[in-house]
Specification:
Elements lengths: L4 H4 L5 H8 L5 E4 L6 H14 L8 E4 L3 H13 L5 H6 L1 E3 L1 H9 L12 E2 L2 H14 L9 H13 L12 H20 L2 E2 H14 L1 H10 L2 E4 L7 H10 L6 E5 L14 H4 L1 H4 L4 E3 L3 E6 H11 L11 E4 L6 E3 L4 H17 L7 E5 L6 H9 L4 E2 L11 H14 L4 H10 L4 H13 L4 H7 L5 H18 L3 H11 L2 H8 L9 H12 L5 H22 L6 E5 H4 L4 E6 L10 H8 L4 H14 L2 E8 L3 E2 L2 E2 L11
Parallel strand pairs: 1-7, 1-8, 2-3, 2-6, 4-5, 6-7, 9-10, 11-16, 12-14, 12-15, 13-14, 15-16
Antiparallel strand pairs: 17-18
Helix pairs in contact: 2-3, 3-4, 6-10, 7-9, 8-9, 10-11, 10-12, 15-29, 16-17, 18-19, 18-22, 18-23, 18-25, 20-21, 21-22, 22-23, 28-29
The chain binds adenosine-5'-triphosphate and magnesium ion.
Keywords: ATP-binding, DNA-binding, Helicase, Hydrolase, Isomerase, Nucleotide-binding
EC number: 5.6.2.4
Catalytic activity: Couples ATP hydrolysis with the unwinding of duplex DNA by translocating in the 3'-5' direction; ATP + H2O = ADP + phosphate + H(+)
Length: 631
């Protein structure tokens, strides 16, 4: 046995041990999934504190999610025997949480947490203010994409002055960016990106303060270094300038956040900034069975832009990945729930399972099937119900309103999907009060509006009586066709995560609608599922033993005995937009999709099931082009 191992109870192989104990100077560990990179970081932290008597408060340990920070702390207490006090003074968490804790103590960045722009819609409000000045058409302009680009600029340390817009669109976004930054400053508001950018500027502007922090932090440890972005990298470079005791671990094959400004080049070119860096590779996979490692290797080596690395399995047991070929997403969900139940009967625990998907909306059927089963399951806390998506809500509003003419909320959605402004709503309210009628009745009485608007409004009421007496699927098609809803979807595009499209939402909704004969049944189902979603998020907070539903992005760094990847068809994995780029001769987005699949596959320990539905969104789908790479 290697020295110190027993005392620290670390259980490391010799390359891992070398990585843990080489504590002087910069060190880069670059290694495949499941090779113990995270374990090395935890062990190194324990080694620094217990063997080298470094004060925990001098150590900065950066994790990719706050959850993994908690897990690391638990492991440090349980396995390495650190005391809760030691853990308490250790500076650990995500870049955002660590940097925010630093800036909030110093002028001029003493932001109050209540002034945080937490959600996209809060940011969009400011952006839309600016858009009005540019007289940009609300319907035509993709605000979510603008926000994403602004975030990208901020994370790559590009203030408005430095940006050279490539085209007219970027020129407009640049205007919005400038306005957004000024407005925020004026109101004392800040967003998540500001936590990083603010910290970087704080150090640049106040050298004395920087010096104090440089003296305080003597050791840096960073997990998932392949997904670091410019502002994070530069800030760490400033902080670690004196000691250069910087240990970073990563896997370029798992770089999956390019859209947020993450750039594996910082890791691949680490030696440029740290010429005397030691580089350690780990080549033993301790997570997955032999066949899973082999398949994952086979897939990822198809990427052209990557650093070659070895990954040997430690276990010879296990089976090759399974493939499911369900008829559609409903059957897919049923097959998986049945399979999970069977494995639980054979002794597995619910927490041994994870179900992974490319985008949030792709989990709709899975969620509903699980909600009807009695399996305990966990949702991502920020995942909203599918039925609350803007486009879906907008369409359902017609159905709600046909049942309940007093549903003003629904009326609001209907009006905005008809591109009618807020003032119509106010007029309707006034009429309904003055003439003592319902808002719907008021629709017929409104006069002081443009003729084209009046024409649209006049269509609503007769529509309702027809909607009432038809099947949900026909109703949806009528709304699309006759109320110009299809056009609204096209113009109103996506929301939040820009890769999820409004038109896909409608197709997903139609899959649900087909299951019911009457509009009321569909609406009952929807309200039940919205309530379930809320309830499950509440309940599942307290579940310790539950099946996990996760996007592949969120699954990074985690591991599960049994993993299911759902919707493995072209257009989902790889995503449509990557296929689109490929048609334009751009290969990189497709490689990022392949990395996503690699991340998903390498979460599995014992079994990996890849599900390839024949139909998706009521249409024939084609198996993911990555599937043939398994052979
Ligand atoms: P990822 O790239 O997915 O983040 P990783 O390289 O960080 O993976 P870890 O999560 O640290 O890998 O380790 C993978 C699994 O292997 C964990 O369950 C860990 O406890 C286990 N493991 C790591 N090293 C050893 C070892 N020397 N002996 C036994 N098990 C090990
Ligand atoms: Mg890890």
């Amino acid at each position: 046995a290697l020295p110190n191992q027993e005392f620290l109870n670390l259980n490391l192989d010799s390359s891992q041990y070398n990585a843990v104990t080489a504590t002087d100077g910069p060190l880069l560990i670059i290694a495949g999934a499941g090779s113990g990179k995270t374990r090395v970081l935890t062990s190194r932290t324990a080694f620094l504190i217990k063997e080298q008597m470094i004060e925990p408060k001098n150590i900065m340990l950066v994790t990719f999610t706050s959850k993994s920070a908690i897990e690391m702390k638990e492991r440090l207490i349980k396995v390495a025997g650190l005391t809760p006090q030691q853990i308490h003074s250790l500076v650990t968490g995500t870049f955002h949480s660590i940097f925010y804790k630093i800036v909030m103590h110093h002028e001029p960045y003493r932001w109050k947490s209540t002034n945080l722009l937490k959600w996209d819609y809060q940011k969009e409000k400011i952006i839309k203010e600016a858009a009005r000045e540019l007289t940009l058409d609300e319907k035509e302009f993709a605000f979510d994409q603008a926000l994403q680009l602004i975030g990208y600029w901020k994370n790559t340390l590009l203030p408005p002055e430095l940006i050279k817009p490539k085209d007219q669109w970027e020129e407009r976004v640049l205007f919005l960016y400038r306005y957004y930054e000024n407005r925020k400053k004026e109101y004392g508001l800040f967003d998540f990106d500001d936590m990083l950018v603010g910290c970087y500027h704080l150090f640049l502007e106040q050298p004395d303060l920087l010096k104090r922090y440089q003296e305080r932090f003597t050791h840096f440890l960073i997990d998932e270094f392949q997904d670091i972005n410019k502002v994070q990298y530069e800030t760490i470079k400033l902080l670690s300038h004196t000691t250069k005791n910087l240990c970073v671990v990563g896997d370029d094959d798992q770089s999956i956040y390019a859209f947020r400004g993450s750039d594996p080049t910082f890791m691949l070119e680490f030696e440029k900034d740290y010429p005397n860096a030691r580089i350690v590779t780990l080549s033993q996979n301790y997570r997955s069975s032999h066949m899973i490692v082999a398949s994952a290797n086979r897939i990822i080596t198809r990427n052209l832009r990557r650093r070659e690395k070895k990954m040997n399995a430690s276990f010879n047991n296990g089976q090759a990945p399974f493939f499911f070929f369900p008829y559609n997403e409903e059957e897919e969900a049923t097959m998986i729930v049945t399979d999970i139940k069977e494995k639980i009967k054979d002794g597995a625990a619910p927490s041994d399972f994870a179900i992974l998907y490319r985008t949030h909306t792709a989990s709709r059927a899975m969620f509903e099937r699980l909600a009807q089963s009695n399996l305990p399951f966990k949702l991502e806390q920020d995942s909203d119900s599918f039925y609350n998506r803007r486009i879906v809500r907008g369409l359902l509003a017609y159905l709600h309103l046909s049942k309940d003419p007093n549903d003003t909320d629904a009326l609001g959605h209907v009006l905005s999907s008809l591109f009618l402004k807020q003032n119509v709503m106010n007029d309707l309210k006034a009429i309904s009060i003055l003439e003592d009628c319902s808002m719907i009745q008021a629709l017929e009485k409104i006069t002081n509006i443009q003729p084209f608007q009046q024409k649209k409004l006049r269509k609503i009421v007769p529509m309702f009586s027809r909607l009432k007496s038809t099947s949900p699927i026909t109703a949806i098609e009528m709304i699309e066709r006759e109320m110009g809803f299809a056009e609204y979807v096209k113009k109103n595009g996506n929301e939040g995560n820009t890769i999820e499209k409004g038109s896909d939402d409608i197709r997903d909704l139609k899959v649900v609608a087909k299951k019911f004969k009457h509009v009321q049944e569909l609406l009952d189902h929807v309200s039940h599922m919205v309530a379930m979603n809320k309830e499950m998020k509440q309940i599942s907070k307290h579940y310790t033993d539950a099946v996990q539903l996760l996007t592949i992005h969120r699954s990074k760094g985690l591991e599960f005995k049994h993993v299911y990847i759902i919707g493995t068809v072209d257009g989902s994995i790889p995503h449509d937009f990557a296929l689109e780029s490929l048609r334009n001769g751009e290969n990189e987005p497709l490689e990022e999709e392949r990395r996503l699949l690699y991340v998903a596959m390498t979460r599995a320990e014992e079994s990996l099931t890849i599900s390839v539905p024949e139909m998706r969104r009521n249409k024939i789908s084609h198996p993911s082009r990555f599937i043939k790479e398994f052979l």
